[in-house]
Hints:
The chain is mostly helical. Helix content is about 70%, strand content about 0%. The chain contains two helices and no strands. It has helices spanning about 15-40, 50-75. The longest helix is centred in the middle third of the chain and has 28 residues, at about 15-40. It starts with 13 loop residues before the first helix and ends with a helix. The mean pLDDT is about 85.
Amino acid sequence: MGSRRSDRPQRSTDRRQLRHSIRSKTRCRVEHVFAWMVQWSGKSVRCIGLARSEVRIGFMNLVYNMRRFCAIRRVAAS
């Protein structure tokens, strides 16, 4: 799922623009989650052991999803 790059400028076809639009929406959503995790907890996970690190990252994901759910409900209620 990499980006397509050419040596010479080319005109974007409708199909290529559609693929780019889909990829950029996914990329935006994923990068937003990781940016939030870095801002909230820092760039590294300081735990001893892989299992503890996985649990800590899992809890960060859970907190992010709960905050997102609450925000979506707040918007839907208004």
